[in-house]
Design goal:
The protein is built from 5 helices and 6 strands. It is α/β, with parallel strands linked by helices. The longest helix has 17 residues, at 137-153.
Length: 169
């Protein structure tokens, strides 16, 4: 596995980010890349925001006028990525996570905030690598299986069955 650089910023000040979450996000990004046999050096940006900011981004970039839990902004297509010429790393894209949404979902699904942020990070990483679930069917099932495989390997296995509304993903 080549070097993985995860740039994390906290652009919200409503909730304190628990100790260890930044390391968890880095581990999740790396685990997805290992699972997907991504051999090149990689660079990912992860930003924590509030609901107002993710709502604004969702409206601006997806024309959806509501907040959501996570947004993915891939910088590549069909396995071709921009390269950071200073480092040689493939720039996979940006992940934006709403901390208030993550807290609400963790409570709703009965698991920790760490598990929820781990899930959102893994989910978004798969989007950055070209996976999608919008059309449902086998693509959605394949993506969910990959998510759960990474989370289980990291010790973040879900503790019960839950239903996710695809509109909130």
């Amino acid at each position: 596995m080549s070097k993985v650089k995860v740039i994390i910023s906290n652009e919200q000040n409503v909730f304190r980010i628990p100790t260890g979450v930044r390391m968890l996000v880095r581990r999740c990004c790396t685990a997805v890349l290992v699972q997907e046999n991504f051999a090149d050096p990689a660079e990912i940006s992860v930003t924590f925001v509030d609901d107002d900011e993710i709502h604004r981004l969702n409206k601006e970039y997806r024309n959806i006028d509501r907040s959501t839990d996570v947004l993915s902004f891939p910088l590549g297509e069909d396995g071709v990525y921009d390269t950071n010429f200073d480092t040689g790393a493939k720039m996979l894209g940006d992940i934006v996570i709403s901390i208030p949404h993550a807290l609400d979902q963790a409570e709703r699904y009965g698991h920790s905030l760490q598990r929820e942020i781990g899930f959102l990070t893994v989910h978004s990483m798969l989007h950055l690598l070209g996976y999608d679930h919008v059309n449902g069917g086998i693509e959605s099932v394949r993506m969910r299986e990959k998510e759960e495989a990474v989370l289980t390997q990291m010790g973040l296995k879900r503790n019960s069955s839950y239903y996710m509304d695809d509109e909130n993903i």
